[in-house]
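Researcher: I'd like a candidate sequence for this fold, 280 residues long. If you have to choose between options at a position, lean toward the conservative one.
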């Protein structure tokens, strides 16, 4: 007999998307190595990076306590949805946290997702966007010590003194109130979202026709139409976003994705024929 863990005791897999950004991915992995909750595996969804990323992952596999799978396919343009679906299939957990290889998690990131995991829900988080000066200044010590998430340290390293701060500085009751009362959209945000693997597979994962622009939100739309509720964790599950260019984005990508998502919303689709399981 196979024993299955109940859903109120999530077995966590963290899916991290990446593409040819080993320096930023290093900082993200340092963040996961510093978590207070260490009971998870990492599945890196690699959309065709060169050998430099593979070498970095091997180094972490050999020298850290992180349990890492590297799921890779050849570079054939922006195919993030395809590699994310492959990572979903490869994951061993029954609860999946999604983030990107440019988002460094605060030490309580996994613990917050675990504490808020609830059957029938997915969690909607956000990120705190950093300028390039802060992104470059963040090192292993800043991540492990928590300085990378301290407003004074960030201002010293170039964050605008008058910039938005609440998403990073709110804590305790204030953070809970912000999650409950600030009217941000309850969307599946690929840089910081989590849900039950069975709920993701029930809508057939990501639509592989889609490229950059709302592809994560579109899957969340299908989950909601399929009866899954949403809980915000934008002010409690904190990660900082490292700056980078987006030279891979085109107007054609955005327009195609917008049309697919519009169709999903108009028809209240609960399933895609272009996901984990292929039609026909």
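Model: Candidate sequence:
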């Amino acid at each position: 007999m196979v024993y299955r863990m109940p859903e109120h005791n999530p077995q966590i897999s963290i899916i991290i998307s990446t593409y040819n950004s080993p320096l930023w991915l290093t900082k993200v992995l340092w963040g996961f190595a510093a978590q207070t909750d260490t009971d998870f595996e990492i599945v890196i969804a690699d959309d065709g990076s060169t050998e430099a990323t593979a070498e970095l992952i091997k180094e972490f596999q050999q020298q850290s306590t992180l349990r890492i799978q590297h799921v890779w396919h050849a570079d054939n343009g922006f195919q993030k949805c395809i590699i994310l679906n492959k990572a979903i299939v490869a994951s061993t957990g029954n609860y999946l946290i999604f983030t990107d290889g440019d988002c460094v998690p605060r030490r309580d990131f996994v613990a917050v997702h675990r504490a808020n995991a609830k059957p029938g829900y997915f969690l909607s988080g956000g990120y705190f966007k950093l300028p390039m000066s802060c992104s470059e200044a963040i090192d292993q010590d800043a991540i492990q010590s928590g300085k990378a998430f301290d407003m004074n340290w960030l201002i010293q390293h170039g964050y605008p003194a008058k910039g938005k701060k609440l998403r990073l500085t709110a804590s305790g009751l204030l953070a809970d109130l912000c999650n409950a009362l600030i009217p941000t959209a309850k969307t599946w945000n690929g840089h910081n979202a989590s849900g039950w693997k069975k709920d993701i597979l029930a809508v057939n994962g990501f639509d592989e026709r889609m490229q950059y622009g709302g592809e994560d939100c579109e899957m969340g739309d299908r989950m909601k139409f399929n009866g899954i509720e949403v809980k915000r964790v934008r002010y409690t599950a904190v990660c900082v976003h490292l700056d980078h260019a987006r030279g891979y984005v085109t107007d054609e990508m955005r327009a195609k994705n917008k049309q697919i998502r519009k169709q999903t919303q108009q028809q209240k689709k609960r399933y895609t024929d272009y996901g984990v399981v292929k039609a026909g």
